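To assess whether the prediction recovers the assembly geometry, we first specified each molecular entity separately, as shown.
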Amino acid sequence: MENNWLQIAYQYLVGGAFFALTLWLCFHQGGAELSHPQDKKMLKILLGGYLGYLSVHILWAYLARF
Amino acid sequence: MMEQIVGTKLDYAIIIIYFIFVLGFGSVFGRFTRTTKEFFFGGQRFSWWLIAFSCVATTVGSYSFIKYSAAGYRYGMSSTMTYLNDWFMMPLFMLGWLPIIYFSRVSSIPEFFERRFDRQTRVAAVVVLMLYMIGYIGINFYTLGVALNALLGWDIFKAAVFIAVITGIYVTFGGQTAVIMTDLLQGFLLLIAGFALFFLGVHYLGGWGEFWHHLPLAHRLPFSGFNTPEKFPMVGIFWQDAMANSLAFWFMNQGLIMRFLSVKSVREGRKSATFVILLLMPLASIAVANAGWVGKAMVGKGMLPANLDANKIFVLVSDLICRPGVFGFIMAALTAAMMSTVDTLINAVSAVAVNDIWKPFVAPNRSDRYYLVIARGFSVLAAVLGLALVPLFASFKSIYRAHGAFTAAVTPPMVVAIVLGILWKRYTPKAAFATLIFGTIGVFLSIPGKMHFLLKPFSHGVGPEGLIFMRALYGLIVCTAIALIVSFFTKPRKEEEVIGFLVATIRKAKERFKGGELNDREFAPPILLELREGSEPEAQIHLQDLEKIKAKLGDLLYVADKRRWLGGLKSMHIKAGTPAEKPGIILLPAEQIKSARLKTGELVRVEKIM
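The predicted structure of the complete assembly is given in tokenized form:
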């Protein structure tokens, strides 16, 4: 095993699909509303967390070679 | 059997002092528990940071240090996979499940099943959940006995009894408040001890460069191979842990649900979950596994022989770099991890026993004081039953494995029923019942080796030994299929009957919780007001002060002791009623002041909750 790119792609695409679908459903069904400041902030935090984890895993997989 | 390390007198002294401290610390909070609401949910008053640390202590279980150090030694830093893949569940947890259970005032998972579906589904959920939780208490007692036997040479059963007595005492007297407070302490301790071990290990190796470069490349990567090794394939861990177990942890774990119901507001609960997953879980993943990484680097550097048993690595590394004194500290952290998982389970079993068995079926309509006595009785019973299972688990490894298989079998049906239950209004009570019963049977069918052909379509190329990881994917698909098919042929409940239990109806649940129209203005920081005794049943605050916290008359307020570090221990919720005549003060009814343990004449923090 020389790298982790397939694993990262699989986890963040399949897990990401569940993440995106449930996020969309919560807003679409009215459980959360973009017009509500708290919900808007939550959306930013949720997307930031997803991208944060993705970035850390990419960086980690890259730096592991050195 | 593992090699036994018997520490120095200093190590023993540290461990004993720690036990006494936990027992005293936990029992002190008995005086904060006077109602069942306080016993199970700590009175819904705590700050996010208290819940966050206690959640970590609950997550890091009885065998985590040994199990993950072994995984770290065998597979390297990919041992962190199981701790770093929960974020995918967060939209549904934070925006769906958490508001639903909080605003609908659900006290247990089975209660959700009755209110969303019907009584029959609730009973099925009670049976499944109780078997799962009591078995899990037994497993935790057994594994901690094994760990203490290996590390300190204590007899397995005696060690389990010792821990059961200590945990049982503080949970029985202090309830959820004691669990949260001791878990806060234990969460801190296990993180500090884990990092102390890592720091000492890296130092022992000669610094970070020596540690890093003596690890093979595969051990430095964050993931194992996609479908290899068979016992730790990334795709298997993803479906088992990231999807099934994470769903189970955040959606069907009665202990965790109770923890999140004890926060002062949904907003605090969301903060808590964010902090747990973005910061504390990554730290915990390092704390529990680093002994394995350090051990592997030591082997690479020739400091340890290459033919080590991975299950011994935590013991070996701790022994090599920690003694004397620090070893006792590490052992205290290990027992902290054990106790903090068991205490949550004991409190959760008691909650289900009282709310889902005793109250509805045995003795309805009794006083809260009566149910509190029963709750304490069930806490003791849960500890005793868990303890009674220890010899059984120790004698028959097949029973131990059977519980593992049982857990894997019940997780997909329960989580599918919950997720579809909150997202899909067309999901019917009969379909939910069928999902629980036939889904569990369907997953059980795949357990015997000769039935593994059922799992092969989901294998992703994982070899025969790794197929068990793919049972989670198989279970989720089978249960979803049952749910869809049965729903298609049966009748759903009317939407007005399930208001508050669907994501689509959260706003209405909020209005019911508040008892009036919502105030959607942004939250403002809390203000300090002088507390005085009032004659009205609601809080009296001057309109000018209400405006400062962007609240209006009828809004739900949170009033707490001004000392933030108390985490809400002395606090209360109350509605804003008739305005006070002058600014700078808040008038509360005398009884409420007393039950919140606040003092008149002192400053209190006031903020809008909804």
